[in-house]
Amino acid sequence: MEAVGLHRKGEIDLQQIIDHLKTHPAYPDSGALACFIGVVRGDAAHDSDSKVTHLEYEAYADVALKRMEEIRADIKTHPGVVEVAIHHVIDSLRVGEPSIFVVVLGKHRQEVFPALSETVERVKKEVPIWKKEFTSKETYWVSTESTHN
Q1: What sign results for the dihedral spanned by CA atoms 65, 66, 72, 75?
Q2: Rounded to an integer, what is the distance from CA 54 to the centroid of its chain?
Q3: Would 82 be classed as within a structural domain?
Q4: Rounded to the nearest 10 degrees, how much is the dihedral formed by the CA atoms of 136, 139, 141, 143?
Q5: Residue 73 is part of a domain; what is its CATH number?
Q6: Which helix (H) or strand (E) holds 92?
Q7: N or C: which end of the chain has fewer CB within 10 A?
Q8: Rg of the Cα trace of the chain?
Q9: Is residue 104 part of a domain?
């Protein structure tokens, strides 16, 4: 398994990522594994009276994977961070389904939580992945400034 990836629904899950990180040579000396799973929310991004039926994610795959790898490599330079995994689902997703998995392996909890948060924020801002929101009233592309997985 690669440390970063774009996947169809059902191709990846948190347990697969954790199992892969357990094979890292530094895993026995690591004391923290922090995980973030972004899930599809039922509230519409710009209409509080409208409910989301589903989202469709699209990506510029080559650039997205390259950018995710660059973010991963940068976060790994943070003190105490051992490994970072970033996996995003590019598909049609219903409310409650996972869209992104970010996992940080590190020496201590004080080091993995900030690295986890920074990774998620950077992926949302820097990686060319877009989502189209389908609601009970309308369909529209959601800008990166207003998305929060």
Answers
A1: negative
A2: 18
A3: yes
A4: -40
A5: 3.90.1170.40
A6: strand 92-94
A7: N
A8: 16
A9: yes
- Rounded Cα distance between 2 and 120, Å, is 18
CA distance 59 to 128: 6
**AA identity, residue 87:** H
Closest C-alpha to 120, from 78, 148, 146:
148
Q: Which residues contact 9 (CB under 8 A, 6 or more apart)?
A: 89, 91, 92, 93, 97
The number of domains in the chain is 1
Q: Is residue 148 assigned to a domain?
A: no
Instruction: State the pTM of this model.
Output: 0.93
Position 142 scores a pLDDT of 87
**In degrees rounded to 5, what are phi and psi of residue 70?**
-65, -40
Domain, as residue range, for 25: 4-142
Treating both helix axes as pointing N-terminal to C-terminal, what angle do 61-75 and 109-126 enclose, rounded to 10 degrees? 150
Q: Which residue's structure tokens are 């592309």?
A: 141
Q: Kindly report, residue by residue over 30-56, the tens digit of the pLDDT.
A: 999 999 999 999 988 776 678 999 999
CA distance 59 to 129: 4
Residue type at 72 in one-letter notation = R
